Structures are given as structure tokens and as C-alpha cells.
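Budget justification aside, the reviewers requested a transparent look at the raw inputs and outputs of the sequence design task funded under Objective 1. We therefore reproduce one unedited record. The lines immediately below are the C-alpha cells for a 463-residue chain.
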């Protein structure tokens, strides 16, 4: 399942929050102003219509021939269109008025003596139509007020409100981005520091700055935790080193005694000879265990610093294979180089690299019928050093566990093949990581196990 980004969520929350709030504010403002402006305009126009209707009534009483002039003067004064209907017929109207602008239903209601006012859409324009009955002269007065100016004002206001909402939303997104950066940055620093510590850089600490109180407390707590962790690791490493040192003297005495007994082996009974063989085998395992513990303790404590050299990978692998085979009296497995490999250079600690190859060959000898091939190839942008064995392979569920300390898989339950200490592959992994590489177990093309070391190579030199 893909994990969601805290930074993105904060950005969306702030941005959408600002957008929703500004949108609601703009909508409420528009509706409120629209309602007030329309009501005020209607009230003003309605008041003018009653005054104009009274003027028309007076004109019809006193000087009916002057009605057209009165209507035109009303139109010029108010900017409206005026119509007059008497006994169901349009008696007179101003120059810009049209009888079609008054709905028949409205004219009927006014003819019945009911004053009426409506907002109508006439030819794409919003108009306020007022109808006022004048029963004294059997006349109906209609006045049509255009609302174009109000429409333009409302349109301009809506445009400004929308523009303001957009700007507010952008400010909200910008604020969310700033808050997200300020909030997530300390977490990213903690994550990077934790990753560096997990890779073995125990000197990593977070820098204490004049940050917020919560961030400063987190920084101090993290540094304190790492310091305690490093102190515990160093204490455990010193303990393992001290114990191993203390065991070396009695082990040396036991080994010397076993050597003396081997010289007089013929004088022992068959049961004594068998006991001596078991003693010698277990003593050899014990010595290897103590040596591995010593090296692991030194590595954990950093007592033996890395001596990094840039060397030819091909020459170093051949030399390491030859040295490991001679050291244990084993047949030297062939070193095969892929056609794509020229002369890559790698940066490693020569002594530890030789120990890596020796441990892999020893592991193949003890548990998998011996190493069959050592293949050098390229894997992407890394150099792959593959050690194949003649065994049945490593089960998929054990391919990560084989590099854990004291893990021997089947060998832990089989006395007949338990010749190792369970630390060899753990040391291999630690050394390879120190070189900036990785190691894994996959299936060999020949059917056994393939221990594949992936190392970054510095450069390729022509032969």
C-alpha cells in the first residue's frame, strides 16, 4: 500500500481550507449585497412609480392632450419606460416603451385594481416592471425600470470576489507549503540521521538550533537516545572482547594439550581415541568462535579502522581465492570473468576483503560440498562477485537469516555437519557493508547456492 505524504496532506488541508472559506465568504457577501441592492432599488423605483402615477392621474383630469409630453418627461427624468392603458386599450406610451414588455397576466391583475411589481427578463435584460391602477379614470399605469447598472455593479463585484477568493486560496496553498516545510523538515532530519545510524555511522547527531520548543526537545531526546545506544554497544563490544581475550589463554593450553595427546594417540584405547577426536574437533570450533568474536567485537567497537585501498578487483579476487584455498588445504575453485568485465577498480580494505572470500569458501566447504566457481560479472552499475557451491541451495525463507549471528539453519540441529560457529556469514555481511556494498543469496545456475557480493566500482582502466 502506497503511503501518503504528510507534506502533501498539510498542503491540501491548508489550500482547500482557504479555498472553501474564501468561497463561502464570497458567496455570502454576494448574496447579501445582491439582496440589499435589489431591495433598495425596488423600493426607490416603486416610490417613484406611485409619484409618476399620481402625475398621470392629474394630467388626465386637467389636460389629457399633454399626456405624451408628461410621459416623455418622466422617461427622461427616471430613465424608465412608461405606458398607460385605459379601458383595455393602450392610450399612450413614452418613446422607448413597448406594450409587449408588460405580461398579459400582469396587465389583467392591474386592471382588476391590484398594484403589481415584478422583475422580468426582457430581451436578455433584467427589468423591474411596476403596474399601478388609477381607478378614478379607469386607467392602468405601467413603468419599466432597467436594471442594467445594477447588473454591471453586481457582475463587477462578483468578479472581484472570485478574484479575491482565488488570491486567498493561493495564499492558503503558500501558507500550507511553508507550514509543511517547517513541520516536516525536522522529521526528515531525524529520518536521515536514523538511516545513517542504521548504516553504522554511530557518530551521527542532530544539530541543536534555535528551533521551536517541541523540535528542540525532539532533537535533544534523539541525540540522548543515540548516545546511550552507542554507549551500550561499546560496552557490549568491550565485554565480548574482554571475554574473548580471557578465553584465549585457556584455549591455547587446551590446544597444546590436545596436540600432545595426538602425538600419543596410538597409546590410547579406541574409546580414548574417539574421545580425543571429538575433543579436537570441538576445540577447533571453539577457537574459531573466539577468533570470530574478537574480530566482531573489534569491528563493532571500531577498534580496527578500515584501511581503504583502490585496487584491481580481478587481481584481488584471484589472490583472495588462492589464499583461502591454501590456508585450509582445499581445491582452488576457478575464477571466471564475464566478457563485459574489463579491469574494474574497487575501494576496499584488503585484509577484510580476503576474510570475506575466505569465509564464503569455508562456508561452502563445510555446508555445501565446496565452492565450484567464483564468477565476476557486472550487475547494473555495480561489480558482482559470485561464489557458487555444490550444495542444494538455501531455502528462500532462510536467505536473509543466514547472515544473522549464530544462525546455522539445518546445521544447528545436525551434529554431523555443525563445523562452523554461525558467525562467518555475519562477519561477511558487516565487512561488505563497510565497503559500501551488499551481499545476498540467490540460486546458482548450477543448482546450488550463489552468494553474490555487489560492490560499487570506482573506474575502469584499459589494459
Amino acid at each position: 500500500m502506497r503511503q501518503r505524504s504528510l507534506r502533501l496532506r498539510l498542503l491540501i488541508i491548508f489550500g482547500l481550507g482557504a479555498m472553501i472559506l474564501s468561497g463561502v465568504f464570497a458567496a455570502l457577501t454576494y448574496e447579501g449585497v445582491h439582496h440589499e441592492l435589489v431591495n433598495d432599488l425596488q423600493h426607490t423605483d416603486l416610490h417613484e412609480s406611485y409619484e409618476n402615477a399620481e402625475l398621470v392621474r392629474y394630467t388626465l383630469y386637467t389636460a389629457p392632450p399633454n399626456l405624451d409630453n408628461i410621459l416623455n418627461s418622466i422617461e427622461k427624468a427616471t430613465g424608465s419606460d412608461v405606458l398607460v392603458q385605459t379601458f383595455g386599450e393602450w392610450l399612450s406610451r413614452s418613446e422607448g416603451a413597448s406594450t409587449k414588455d408588460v405580461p398579459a397576466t400582469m396587465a389583467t391583475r392591474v386592471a382588476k385594481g391590484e398594484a403589481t411589481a415584478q422583475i422580468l427578463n426582457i430581451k436578455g435584460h433584467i427589468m423591474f416592471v411596476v403596474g399601478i391602477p388609477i381607478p378614478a379614470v379607469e386607467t392602468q399605469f405601467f413603468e419599466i425600470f432597467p436594471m442594467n447598472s445594477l447588473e454591471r455593479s453586481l457582475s463587477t463585484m462578483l468578479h472581484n470576489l472570485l478574484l479575491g477568493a482565488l488570491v486567498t486560496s493561493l495564499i492558503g496553498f503558500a501558507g500550507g507549503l511553508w507550514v509543511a516545510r517547517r513541520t516536516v523538515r525536522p522529521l526528515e532530519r531525524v529520518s536521515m540521521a536514523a538511516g545513517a545510524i542504521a548504516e553504522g555511522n554511530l557518530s551521527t547527531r542532530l544539530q541543536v538550533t534555535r528551533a521551536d520548543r517541541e523540535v528542540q526537545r525532539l532533537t535533544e531526546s534523539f541525540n540522548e537516545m543515540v548516545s546511550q545506544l552507542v554507549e551500550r554497544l561499546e560496552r557490549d563490544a568491550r565485554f565480548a572482547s574482554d571475554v574473548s581475550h580471557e578465553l584465549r589463554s585457556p584455549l591455547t593450553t587446551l590446544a597444546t594439550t590436545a596436540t600432545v595427546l595426538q602425538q600419543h594417540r596410538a597409546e590410547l584405547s579406541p574409546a580414548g581415541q574417539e574421545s580425543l577426536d571429538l575433543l579436537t574437533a570441538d576445540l577447533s570450533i571453539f577457537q574459531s568462535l573466539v577468533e570470530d568474536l574478537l574480530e566482531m567485537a573489534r569491528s563493532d567497537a571500531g577498534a580496527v579502522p578500515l584501511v581503504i585501498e583502490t585496487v584491481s578487483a580481478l587481481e584481488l579476487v584471484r589472490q583472495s581465492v588462492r589464499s583461502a584455498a591454501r590456508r585450509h588445504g582445499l581445491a582452488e575453485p576457478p575464477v571466471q570473468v564475464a566478457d563485459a568485465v574489463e579491469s574494474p577498480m574497487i575501494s576496499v580494505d584488503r585484509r577484510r576483503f580476503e576474510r570475506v572470500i575466505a569465509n564464503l569458501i569455508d562456508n561452502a566447504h563445510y555446508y555445501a560440498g565446496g565452492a565450484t566457481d567464483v564468477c565476476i560479472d557486472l550487475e547494473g552499475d555495480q561489480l558482482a562477485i559470485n561464489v557458487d557451491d555444490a550444495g542444494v541451495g538455501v531455502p528462500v525463507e532462510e536467505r536473509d537469516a543466514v547472515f544473522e549471528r549464530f544462525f546455522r539453519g539445518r546445521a544447528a540441529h545436525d551434529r554431523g555437519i555443525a563445523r562452523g560457529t554461525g558467525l562467518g556469514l555475519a562477519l561477511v555481511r558487516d565487512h561488505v557493508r563497510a565497503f559500501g556494498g551488499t551481499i545476498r543469496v540467490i540460486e546458482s545456475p548450477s543448482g546450488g547456492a550463489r552468494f553474490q557480493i555487489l560492490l560499487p566500482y570506482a573506474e575502469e582502466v584499459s589494459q
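The chain has a mean pLDDT of 80. The CA atoms of residues 346 and 457 lie 5 Å apart. Computational costs for records of this kind are itemized in the attached budget.
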